[in-house]
Write a structure and sequence with these properties.
By secondary structure, the protein is α+β, with helices and mostly antiparallel strands. Helices cover about 55% and strands about 10% of the residues. It is built from 9 helices and 4 strands. α1 links the parallel β1 and β2 (about 30-35). It starts with a strand and ends with a helix. This is Glutathione S-transferase. It holds the Pfam family GST_N_2. InterPro entries: Glutathione-S-Trfase_C_sf, Glutathione_S-Trfase, Glutathione_S-Trfase_N, Thioredoxin-like_sf. It comes from Pseudomonas arcuscaelestis.
Amino acid sequence: MNYHLIIGDKLYSSWSLRAALALELAGATYEETLIKLNQPDTRTRLLEYSPTAKVPLLKCEHGIIADSLAIAEYLAERHPHANLWPTDVAARAQARSACAQMHSGFFALRGNMPFDLSRDEALENVPLDVQVDIDRIVALWSECRLASKESGPFLFGQPSLADAFFAPIAVRLRTYRAEVPADAASYIETIYQWPAFQAWQKAGLAEREG
């Protein structure tokens, strides 16, 4: 299987991080092309790969797949033995539900706390709608752990697509120094100790130094 992942800056592109983590979970080898965002030629370069002009994009034998959730589902189908979703039916349903909620919601948090791996500063004031998002995310993580049938520190015990989708949120909560309960802080630390995430983080921070 030949995969080619087109991404944005690792320092800033949370959606790209999700797709990359999904590929790592699948155990897939892939070629990577990074297109710097917010540059005069960004749209032109992206249009060379897809009419969406957005990242991430996955080029594969079945065409070009846009959108991190579509990429994740495709990889789960193509690599069934990698168990990208939990194996238990109920847990898998909850994992899909959590990812869909992440994919289509939490706009206040995303808008007020842009993804930036290098940040280390709290918001001066946390808007009410942002705090509502944070509280819901913490509750959602607890719901995932309750639904899990496997032991381990990730949302469903072992690493899954749910963790790939919530890794950028874990980054936001840490880099903006959000106050969260102990179990949520422990999960954030789990993400930061995940080798697949650490590799992305290292590369992202190197972009800033470069």
